[in-house]
Amino acid sequence: MLQLVDFVVRNRFFLVFVLLEVLSVWLIVRSNTYWGATYFNTSNYYVAKTLAFSNSAREFTKLDEINADLAAENARLHAQVTSLTQRQPLDAPAGYVPDSAFASRFTYTIAKVVDNETSKANNVLTIDKGAVDGVKPGMGVISATGVVGKVRFCSANYSVVTSILHSQFMVSTKLVRSKEIGYAKWPGKDPNLIDLIDVSKYTKIFKGDTAVTSDQNSVFPPGIMVGKVQNVAVHPNQTFYNITLRLATDFRNLSYVYVVQNQQLVEQEDLKARTLEKR
């Protein structure tokens, strides 16, 4: 308290000067219409700027929460779209009615990417969901834009996913326009590009054609984006195209993913194993 009094005493002339200046400005604003309007507009401008900055800062602190909400909404929409497309397949013959359990067999679990690789020959990523969340090895993983990979290992709270950017990973892929089916396989170079192999050259393929997961796939729902055709080449002595796709998923900026569970996968795999045993 004594220090405050001492400060006022030592600076009393300066403080009186500042007080008189403020009083003078106030009197000018009150008695002069022009200066009053100028003060009003200027103060409103800076108040608006301050409020805008405050709102931006507040929204920035909530980005994680907003992203999580958007991811949850995307998971719900993925489930709805998959179920609808399976109940009413566009290329199904007249009279075909799929079983309701088959149409709704895919469910989605949201996960956040906590570690990611893109520069190796065999890349993996780690997500923050594991066995306690119902995640199991063999489940597919997608992003909001396309295919990501397949779960390889699980702990209680984390899972390691084999990325599509892995030399041993392949996914059955269909070209939407031509209906041709091949396999997407990464050549181990550019993380934005992937090869589409085993597509017959006796059909027309165009640059920009969309490639999605095919129906011949028990891990991924059909119709999930893989990429778009960037280059098409064919050699005279080959019966297949050399096709390069630009991946739909941007692996360098991957934040949230969706673990896909096929509720009928065990039944499908058991039946397939029994078939192989009988051969």
UniProtKB/TrEMBL annotation:
Keywords for this protein: Cell shape, Membrane, Transmembrane, Transmembrane helix
GO CC terms, sorted: plasma membrane
Gene Ontology BP annotations: regulation of cell shape
Residue ranges crossing the lipid bilayer per the database entry: 12-29
Rod shape-determining protein MreC beta-barrel core domain segment(s): 113-261
Similarity comment: family membership: Belongs to the MreC family.
Protein name (database record): Cell shape-determining protein MreC
